[in-house]
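I wish you would study the pair of lines that follows with an eye to the fold:

===
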Amino acid sequence: MHIAPIAAASASATARGGHVEIEAVTKSYGTGGKAVAALRPVSLAIEPGSFVTIVGRSGCGKSTLLRLIAGLARPDGGLIRIDGAPVEGPPDGVRYVFQDYGQSLLPWKSARANVAFGLRHAHGGRRAGAGLEAEYLRAVGLEAAADRYPWQMSGGMQQRLAIARALASDPELLLLDEPFSAVDALSRAQLQDMLLGIWRELGVTIVLVTHDIEEAIYLADRVIVLAPGGAGVQADVRIGLPRPRRQVETRESAEYLAHRRELLRLVLE
């Protein structure tokens, strides 16, 4: 899928920010004897402009970690910094795209108006200007659906719109929680390639949570494996697959299959 350049984006794909530092972060739910540990000490750093995926068994704390980075929840212990500033609430330069598009989109607004909402809430006020809605809709292949409402769109189209609106707000860090899990296999492959194209174009830092090991490898520079039961980071795997990546050729390469075998063993054993 061809991704049209976004004129209002940075001049190159050089990362502008999005450096994440996580130091000994813990999180539990509940109180007293009924408290359940969602994350035991997690420490890691995410480089600006990188594409990182997080995998692990259900209940390992993937979504919890993403919400902590987004400032949507507070850790019980430890510290999270983004570009050197402690996270004490939702940071201005961070955008979160939910698995449930209904939590990301305004159903009473058209696609164009949803993107305009993102532009009005741009990080640092850098996205003002008429006509930019069309550029972001074009970037995700929705220029012909500008006047449709979310409820008139397929699941894949809604998720594209959610990503377009998030990008329109000019984030330095984009957090995605299982963004493609509710769409069919063909739409999922198209959305993966769309996201990679936008990432190359804008230089934004992306952290994506997924249950799909193959998706994690295909997209990422690094795959973080969280241990079962919220026990922290089990492995940090660097993915050296050449870019740009291709749905068929990349997934059939020996290096891809070796990563798949390694990560399946880590998650399943």
Observations:
- The CA atoms of residues 55 and 225 lie 5 Å apart.
- The longest strand covers residues 36-46.
